[in-house]
Design goal:
TIM Barrel, 8-stranded parallel beta barrel, 3 domains, Spore Coat Polysaccharide Biosynthesis Protein SpsA, Chain A, 9-stranded mixed beta sheet, phosphoenolpyruvate mutase, 17% strand, 539 residues, Pyrv/PenolPyrv_kinase-like_dom, alpha/beta, single chain
Length: 539
Amino acid sequence: MTEKPSKFTMLRSLLTGPGTNFIMEAHNGLSAKIVEEAGFDGIWASGLSISAALGVRDNNELSWTQVLDVLEFMSDATSIPILVDGDTGYGNFNNFRRLVKKLCQRQIAGVCIEDKVFPKTNSFLGDGQQLTEIEEFCGKIKAGKDNQEHDDFSIVARIEALIAGRGMDEALRRAEAYADAGADAIVIHSKKADPDEILTFCRLWDHRVPVVLIPTKYYRTPTDTLREAGASLIIWANHNLRSSIQAMRATSARLKQHETLIDVESEVAPLNDVFSLADAGELEEAETRYLSGQARPNAVVLAATRGDDLGDLTADQPKCMLNVRGEAILGRQLRALSRIGASEPFVVAGYRAEAIDLPGINKVVNADYERTGEAASLYAARQALNGDCIISYGDVVYRPFFLNLLMERQEDFVILVDPNWMEKRETRNAESRDLVKLSAGDAGELHADAEPLLVDIGPGVADADGEWVGLLRTSANGARRLKAELERMREDGSLDRAELGTVLKRLMARGEEIVALTVSGNWMNINDLLDLAQARNAM
């Protein structure tokens, strides 16, 4: 098995690899997790954002040890590299070389320092920024390189000559000197709204070391223009902080004005999403393993189908193995199941079963997948139906907190339903086989205190209240009754062609109550190329 490269090597690859790469700003552990979840390959730990999040100015009012505390949380929370905004290095060469050592110890992959005097002033404030002498800054770079504890730790030198009004010749002279001193890359910075001086620099620079751009002010410039200029890395420098400010102001104003959560709750992230991002499921799994001795929930993923509407993408693999933001659909599901402490999931394969080769699964093959439906696939994994169990379609992409919602319930049968299913499908009129009718009536009533019950499910449901997400949770008792129903279906000959919706309808006919929890968005069922494109864009 190939060993995963270190965070240091991953950042170096972003700087020196082909094409243009992108990293996104974060300012604490939570925002760092969101950046990784979005699919970015690296994180920019912004000095401005970290300072603002702690309520102080971006003028070295935070000590470097306080910044280091924040970085440690960010690094522990993520598996992608972090490039930290190191301001001016927090002093002279001696301060900087100690900073580099401490960053390496916390697996921070690189640091960017700017050639201004300490304490710094934010580049976008005022005029006449004071620059340090070239020789002094080169000494700082050399001290950092001499004291880094990993060969691939990166020191990025940020040139402020254009910010300070010193001109292009000075910017190029400093770039040459910093590259000679050992800088692994340079940032050429500008506060002009047009990119002309940035593009001129890139044209004149010989690219001995990679160029990093931060287009905060010249944001109207097409990204392809920056690519063509030779940018190795582009930093989206402060937009998570700024978007969070706008969202918090709007929520606070609405609560102040209306004094009720009714209109706000549906507009903010569900509480379980917060718990999921904080990896609360891992603690629950650990408690199960180390404290309580309670049985871990079982899981079954139904992944036997090819996905004919996906064309050549599924010529050699089932659709559960399609890539969504760097990870197979099934891989994303396994990661979510591990967060709730599920035992090794039973994955029911069929088409190209050999392509399902992920570790940590119990693979069951439905050899008759072309002739049979989901009920037969579930029957093939019936040994999993002997305790609390999560049953999932193999082609659904969802946020991990969905499983937390299900596991909180004590009822025998619980499903997730999206009342905004038509909105999710946008202008398409495709008929879903998982349309549902609920006891609460129309979708506007689904937020009542009592959870609605499933009344009907299938493609012909009239006046549907929503769409089933494709996730079912059973208690141990529910699992036994589900298993018994599957046995009855096998005996009466109805098993082979039945879908899960049919099984649920038979359970309801026997008097079983199936609770429906409502979710809005945060999932996608992958049936065709448009679904896949939307999932890669939104999930």
